[in-house]
Amino acid sequence: MILDISDQSFRAIFQNKDLYLPIRWDGKDFYHSVEVLFKTYLDAVQNEVMNENAEEHAMDFWSTYELRSRREYLRKIRRFCRMILSAIREYLNGFPAKAYTHFSGLMEKMMETPFQVYNKTAYELFENHTDAYRQDPLDLFRVALVPDAILYDRARVFHTPYSLRAKISTNRFSIAGFPSLYLGTSLPLCCEELGYPQTTMQALAARFKIEREYAICEREIEVIELGIKPQDFFLEENPWDSGSTRSRSTRLGASDEKRGRYLLWYPLIAACSFIRADKRDPFAAEYIVPQLLMQWIRTKIEKNVRQKNEKLVGIRYFSCASLRASEMGFNYVFPASGKQISPDIPFCPVLNKAFVLTKPKYLRDYESIAACEDALRNDYDLKHVD
């Protein structure tokens, strides 16, 4: 059940900027911070959803039906918030398995009314691969920091090899030791995430394209949308376009139903969008929910494989490195399959088939990050990793 929410009602709910994303917190009690956020949100939703004065028309069948629908809608949002908090509590109490049980139940309910899922598999026919890559509007970038300035091939900017698991630290949507492919829609965003050029290390950059032909990728590619902030609904731009960055300005057209779906998904998006208080800490409470989400996605992928319905599922989200970074574009993350074909092949075969990329270029060979990005956008020598 989804209630249509008008633009006026939606704006009233999010007039409190404490609900804007990403969220900077005090770094003390994560559970309490999420609990306070959810209370603020639920109070705002209740005040707006239940302000139709339907009680005055209780004798009218349709008014009574609408009132009941609104109450059920509000109960659903409250239930989602409770399930997220239960997962966080169990995890912080040292029971990650119990946390996942709560979270898995949450996702099964939420996916009954998905907010937005993009299918990245193309069914159009092009004359050749080059034409397909030129016409695909979605450019993705990746930056890798290296200690030297030697000639590297494409493999150096792909995901961390299985053989180097010990080098993989915990990330927002992936646990320590498990490789995932993180990409951004702009080169400045990727640099901001890594702290370049403040670092003394060299930076390699490459442009990625999704392999949209099923015959080559051998599976459909889907992306779950977590990249829309509540304040995006009020901007003169279009974050709904799966190929857009936040610098492109067109009128955002969100339907009443889309706003209603967003209200159901806001608690999950918010719980994934806390700015990390201190990156020097070995444990990041801010990553509990996004890592549980990725675990659920990987479990879903494995289930699909057993049912002969193979898919690659990723997430689109806004950067939580800083408030500034959150406005610089979108991030994408795709998990590795975890199945290494042989010790001689260090990369995920699924991701390798799903992406083509340019040869990496050194950022310091260009006058600016923007100049390097332009060079990458005009480089059509896109291939899979050898």
In whole angstroms, the N-to-C terminal distance is 48 Å
Main sheet: which strands, in order across?
Answer: 1-5-6-7-3
Q: Please state the overall shape, judged from the principal axes of the Cα atoms.
A: globular
> What is the CA-based Rg, rounded?
22 Å
SS class: alpha+beta
SSE sequence, one letter per element? HHHHEHEEHEHEHHEEHEEH
Show the helix and strand layout:
Blueprint: H1 7-13, H2 30-49, H3 61-92, H4 96-110, E1 117-119, H5 129-135, E2 140-146, E3 180-184, H6 187-194, E4 202-210, H7 214-217, E5 220-226, H8 256-271, H9 288-306, E6 311-317, E7 331-335, H10 349-354, E8 355-357, E9 361-362, H11 369-377
Parallel strand pairs: 5-6
Antiparallel strand pairs: 1-5, 2-4, 3-7, 4-8, 4-9, 6-7
Task: Give a written overview of the molecule.
- With 386 residues, the chain is of the alpha+beta class.
- It folds into two domains: 7-105; 118-377, no CATH class.
- Helices cover 37% and strands 12% of the residues.
- It contains eleven helices and nine strands.
- It has helices at 7-13, 30-49, 61-92, 96-110, 129-135, 187-194, 214-217, 256-271, 288-306, 349-354, 369-377; strands at 117-119, 140-146, 180-184, 202-210, 220-226, 311-317, 331-335, 355-357, 361-362.
- The strands form two sheets. It has a five-stranded mixed beta sheet with strand order 1-5-6-7-3. Strands 2, 4, 8 and 9 form a four-stranded antiparallel beta sheet that branches.
- Helix 3 (61-92) runs parallel beside helix 8.
- The radius of gyration is 22 Å and the shape is globular.
- The model is unreliable at 53-59 and 247-252 (pLDDT under 50).
